[in-house]
From TrEMBL:
One of its GO terms (molecular function) is exonuclease activity. InterPro entries: Imm5-like (IPR048667). This is Exonuclease SbcC. Keywords: Exonuclease, Hydrolase, Nuclease. Residues 10-137 form the Imm-5-like domain. It comes from Nannocystis punicea.
């Protein structure tokens, strides 16, 4: 019989730092989405809501809805790069809802915004992997101590997920080193 993953410690301070980190990663590529759909504010709204939470705001239904709205915007984006930029924003808002479960899936919630940002920049640069590598290195350096601390309580990032999954695993390994 399968068992539920064990719970990990996860303080509100750590949750806020992780959400702030994810918001900064998503903000880095917001212009890629906005060049595609300049009147669509859903990704910007999701990032702003994550930043508000990271600065001490409450986790509200609007924050969760903002994440889902940014995810929907990704499906309407005019290019794959813009779609990944919107997904980064969606992950930023979703980071505020990280669960205290010792599940490899939670790693995606912590690093998803950074990985989608790297993919958005790679695609915007015509698929240049050096651009993604630079973004991932920037994200590694940007990560506050809470990101590495919480990752250290979780299993390693899971397999799969295509190029974004590859970026998550790369960044996960770098932050655990």
């Amino acid at each position: 019989m399968p068992t539920e993953p064990a719970e990990i410690e996860l303080s509100e301070h750590e949750l806020r730092e992780i959400a702030g980190y994810a918001a900064e990663c998503a903000r880095r590529v917001l212009s890629i989405f906005e060049q595609s759909l300049p009147a669509d504010t859903r990704p910007r709204d999701a990032i702003d809501a994550a930043r508000t939470f990271s600065a001490g705001g409450r986790r509200t239904a609007a924050l969760r809805q903002g994440g889902w709205a940014a995810f929907k915007a990704a499906g309407e984006a005019a290019s794959p790069a813009a779609a990944d930029a919107a997904r980064a924003a969606s992950h930023a808002a979703g980071a505020a809802y990280l669960h205290p479960r010792a599940s490899a899936h939670q790693v995606k919630h912590i690093l998803g915004a950074a990985a989608h940002a790297a993919r958005a920049e790679e695609l915007a640069a015509g698929g240049d992997p050096r651009v993604a590598a630079d973004t991932l290195e920037w994200a590694r350096r940007l990560a506050p101590p809470a990101v590495a601390a919480v990752l250290g309580r979780l299993p390693a990032a899971p397999p799969g997920g295509g190029r974004v999954g590859e970026f998550i695993r790369h960044l996960d390994a770098a932050l655990r080193a």
